[in-house]
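Handout, section B. The chain below has 252 residues.
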Amino acid sequence: MLDERRQELAQILVQTGKLVVKDLAASYHVSAETIRKDIAYLEKLGIAKKTHGGAIYINDERELPFFHTSTLNRNLKAAVAQKAVSLIRGRVVVMDGGSTTLAIARLLSLKENITVFTNSLSAVPILANATGVNLILTGGEVRKVSQDQVGSWTTRAIREISADIAFIGANSLVQKSGPSTSNMNEVEVKQAMIAASNRAYLVVDSSKLNVVSTYQFATWREFAGIVTDKGISEEFVDRVSKFTEVIIADET
């Protein structure tokens, strides 16, 4: 129950930008001190800053561990994944790591006669034993925080691929000219995957509008489309649809 509540509080924080101790204590039927301890936990993760009566959301360019981000906005990511998989035409998929692409991996495991190239170690337990999937890892140095493979070895392997479709995640949608990531080592990997595919799709949930990241890795024009959820702002859709299609997934 403790972990579940903290995961829910983290999701509320990312989506709304704040937590109010009094309201949350009443909602969860716990003491205000219990909620303050939960906020202290979120502060250690680097996403919360304590305020009088609660906390506000912050992003200080530190990445959250993958096991934590994979639990946030699960329903939204599942909806995005379902829509993304429906776009597959052909049998060769390349995708990078991340919680949304992990949701895509779960659906790909049900496919027949499909080849998946990825740098995501988190996808291995899902896809390695899927009878209809030929799984190929790119190789490379493992980033422990994200469980992805990166570096020159990784990009060299990806450049040898010819894929029908690519699914690319992002940390932030804030920059006006394109998506960004919080780690510079991921930039070349994402760029190589886009170049290696006939069609590349950005797959992100709407919470990424509340996150700031440093390294832009592509422009909107480089994607055949952006698959996201109903929470995306009208301002974002109006701005980005001038360059590529914005595809809204129905929540599952």
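Note. Residues 2-58 form a domain with the Arc Repressor Mutant, subunit A fold (CATH 1.10.10.10). Compare this with the example in section A.
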